[in-house]
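PT: before anyone asks, these are the final sequences, not the draft ones from last week. 1098 residues across everything. Please model them as a single complex and drop the result in this thread when it's through.
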Amino acid sequence: MDFVKPTIEYAELAPLLIVLGGACLGVVVEAFLPRAVRRTVQVALATVVLLAAFATTIWVATDLAEVADGAARGLLAAEGTIVVDGPTVFLWGLVLLLSLGGVALFAERRIEGGVSAFAGQAAALPGTEAEREVSTRGWEHTEVYPLLLFAVGGMMLFPASNDLLTMFVALEVLSLPLYLLTGLARRRRLLSQEAALKYFLLGAFSSGFFLYGVALVYGFAGSMQLAAIAEAVRNDTGNQGLLLVGMGMLAVGLLFKVGAAPFQGWTPDVYQGAPTAVTAFMSAATKVAAFGALLRLFYVAFGSDRWSWQPMMWVIAILTMVVGAVVAVSQTDVKRMLAYSSVAHTGFLLTGVLGVQGAGELADGQVTSLQAVLFYLATYGVATLGAFAVVTLVRDSNGEATHFDRWAGLGRRSPWLAGAFALYLLSMAGIPLTAGFVGKWAVFTVAMSAGAWPVVLTAIASSIVAIFFYVRYIRIMFFAEPDVGPDGHPGEVASVTTPSLLTSATIAAGVLATIVIGVVPGPVLDLASRAGDFIR
Amino acid sequence: MSDFPWLTVLVAVPLVGSVVVAALPRAELAKLVALLVSVLTLGVGVAVALQYELREGMQLTETHDWISAFGVHYALGVDGLSLLMVLLTVVLVPLVLAYSWTHADPGSGASGSARSFFAWALALEALSLAVFLATDVFLFYVVFEATLIPAYFLIGGFGKAGRGAAAVKFLMFQLGGGLVLLASVIGLYVVSAQAGEPSYLHSDLAALDMSTAAERWIFAGFLIAFVVKAPLFPLHTWLADTTEKATPGTSVLLVCVLDKIGTYGMLRFCLELFPGASQWATPLVVTLALISIVYGALLAIGQDDLLRLVGLTSLSHFGFITLGIFAFSSQGQSGAILYMVNHGLGTAALFLTAGHVIERRGTSSIRRMGGMEKLAPVLAGLFLVAGLATLSLPGLSPFVSELLVIIAAFDYHWWVGAVAVTGIVLAAIYVLSMYQRVMTGPGPLAGDHAAAGEHHDDPAHREPAGHGTAAGPGTGTATATRPEAAVAPPAVPEARDLRPHEVAVLTPLVVGLVLFGFFPMPLFDVANPYVEDLMARVDVDDDAPAVPPGTTVEHAAEEGAH
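LR: through. Structure below.
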């Protein structure tokens, strides 16, 4: 058998290659540069790589050829394993922007008194002499930047993969660095390591499900390619049982990544245990990537069989929204509250996913579910990244003060920061004139158009519950006095540490984006609609 | 001049003003600027009114694409109904600001909060005006919800202890109603998209042909939101708590301006967009309105807190307004629209005079008042006028509107009218007994020192900080500091009469009440063309008119007599 040299569309894949290449370069930097200069070089490298990748993404986006009579734009690259189309480049751009925010938060050193939020040496056991020594020397792990770049590479490949095996590889490439990053917190290290272990074990388990699903679907369709699977589904060849079970298994793997009920169990622990900068990056960017993959898998491969999976999505969406919103009410830790709120948002996003309709059922200019979900991802990503960035700044003597009571009266001590947090919460709650409202409107609309009114009514009921716990934070920040302790002295309250420009800029950019997208959502919506459909 | 975006300017002036006020360094300067901005807004409002042509329908319209993907427009317009609401708003806000000049000032170094009160009030004005002017349902929804944010901060930031909980209750009710409305707004988009190009313009939606089931479901969402807003019987519980805890100034903005959005929305959206469903739901709405009239009045009679009492009288009044709207006759509609204006004037006067009384008495508990009449005759007189307006004394403007609503109610069905009439009797009881207990009698002069010890609900302006404590854990501290607070100022605050500037603030309201009581024609001139259009629109789809055919002729005759 002759070996045929594969053709790789280097130009179209440039953003992906730049990020992965930058990650490898980061490893080399780690190996050869002295410790003193590593951080500067790594931060600069990561920033430049992400900016370059973003610039090439824009260039690729403007250059995509139209296919399928203008309904979609893009091409199949790398022998049909990667597809660069409108939704792909939209998600690439979004992931890259959020990662830039992530790098800024990773690089923040001012709030921890000159060191980063990451452990000095992950291998030093907590509470040992080795840890103290590392701490006095002021070492820090600069490997986090290449790890972040690898994760970003995986996140970019995930929604772009056009066959199940590539998708699986992307899933692992994005997950493994995140497991590591989760365990690297400088403070509360045992909690962080426990979270990393939980995340890893459950993640590995869900990957197993995904892989099993890949095998079963291959058994049904005889191919890994999404297009071939779609063909097989349309022709209804083979064993329907294999398809249904395989589809379910694949769904488990993906729903775990997005944190949908009943696979949401890891989110609160991991979000709480991970260093907050990692939580910010991971909660925003992972969800974008995983929803991209979910959309591609279910719309492209299983699109013609949507009558089989839509009922499942109905149940999952309803369950996720209810669990997320109801459990969040009882949370007293801000990171856990945001974790459950992100579960609820997964439910809202699924509401958009299940709203898919055939092209013939849509009126001219009507919002499509793909457009709605892409838009929602943008609004959610910005708000989450910003909210967690605020959490990194609210501290007391023990580091971050994540307990509910510590936030009392923050609005009077630091009105601007509390205002920014309130805005993010209002956006997540979906109050008009913030980005979150338009996003919510869009996903509810597509679900309603598809006739999923029970889901929309549940979504509205959970929104009401969600508003309660968001507003509670606003109330405690602005209208509550700090608790008085048993000895008559006021209890310790958190104060805001002045961050460097990196974190401030991230928060400010998030606030700006939330307001601008909320008041003038047109451009972003147009961008999402110009992305067109997936190409098959 | 016809191209000049008057309505945008009308909304923009207070909006920009609120940002400027919030950014100003000194509280005194901020208050002055805020007052000037509100007066300027009043000027713009009057300019809009001067250009308004009677019987021309929607005018001064502005329409721009906003979110084309959703068929959403930035569309403003003014017709008779919105003009009256706009004028009510722009008149009341400067009065509230002038009233709050001294009252919102929490003293003791918290100068920032006086400034934020004025800034939030202006923001609320801007958004309320946008609500009354929006002719795009999506835009309406956006500003409808956005009004809640300034309202929340006004309630939660200023007032007496427990306001934090009251603010959350207010917000939860309103946002709950708002989200139900969101479902309907989304439903409208779906229906509109199925009919062709999706559009949220009021005029496009009014021309839409909906299936009966869809119309009724969507109508139900709108109605629930407006019933919460207005408020009507089962969803009214936030009203009393809110008015009790908030400052009188905030209550005026909420009850006299913001709550009008509920009844405004019933006319503008329920009746105009879903005439069929509105008639279908009439029995239910009329029943709720009647319950609200009687129940609100009964609750008001039993209240001890003055502000709570005034708040509950509004429940009764909103019952009358809704009854007028859903009686489906031109008297009912005109009466309801006039009622909205008159209730705004009368209740504002009552809230503000009640605020003066409370300030002078140092308590809002009616039990511990009395004898004010001798000490402050002018205040007592104005309080009486405001109270008489509330009970619709002939010669004061609410009488005209209440009469029309009751005529319409009798037209609708005799028992509806009979129940509604009891509202008048009950109103006389709660107003006169309130006046008697607050103003007449010897007054608790001797016993007041004893009573001061158990001050458990001082008004907020006695509390040290404007942002003070919220409910819950904080309440304990607040109570602990009270005895000193009660001792430090004289236990019976100097019960001096109204100062000239305080009289000046109340004068426009009283003049309005008397003027429109004797000469309501200007209001009718504005309202009647709108009502005629509305009746025509409702009757187009009217298969089984609620009013027997013969009576419409008489209506027309009576209309002519006005």
